[in-house]
Amino acid sequence: MKRTIITFVLAVAALVAMGQTKVVWEDLMKSYSPNPQFEINKVELTPEKTTLYASYNNSPTSWFLISKESYLESDGKKYAIIGSDSITLGEQHHTDEETWTKEFVLYFKPLPPDTKEFDFMEGTAPNDFKVFSIHEKSYTMPVTPVPEEYLADYAEDDVMEDLKYSDQPATIHLRFSMWI
User: Which long-range contacts (CB under 8 A, 24 or more apart) does 24-31 make?
Assistant: First the structure.
């Protein structure tokens, strides 16, 4: 009886430990993406793989593909793509004609479980999908100082006046050019 209880306790402890190895990010943020039609909606980090739940939103007449060379990058290390569901890597796909959306899953080599942010890179060509600094909304990214050579050199007395609010109408003058 004692042996059964000890086995049961160890089995429950192992199950609890296994459940804690999966990290799920559902409330995501990104710093920048030049491709707003490509979205990453959810991330799962496990010891076996990193899973990205993604979608592509665009007209069904246009196509998209996810390269077999895609990778995640975190702390200077690259994590290669290892598979997908609902799409075939390297082949053209179209969105649904009614919803204009195609949902799919991408699998990558595992990121470390303590990862706080990473980049998705399909490649380095201008039209390749890129999503920079994917992280949970609750994560506060560290502030990166602006390099000295990019700081403006203003005289100390050249500051804006304090803002003054008024209910009087204001006139704004604009000038712009159009290229056709």
Answer: 25/135, 25/136, 27/136, 27/137, 27/138, 28/134, 28/135, 28/136, 28/137, 29/134, 29/135, 29/136, 29/137, 29/139, 30/131, 30/132, 30/133, 30/134, 30/135, 31/132, 31/133, 31/141
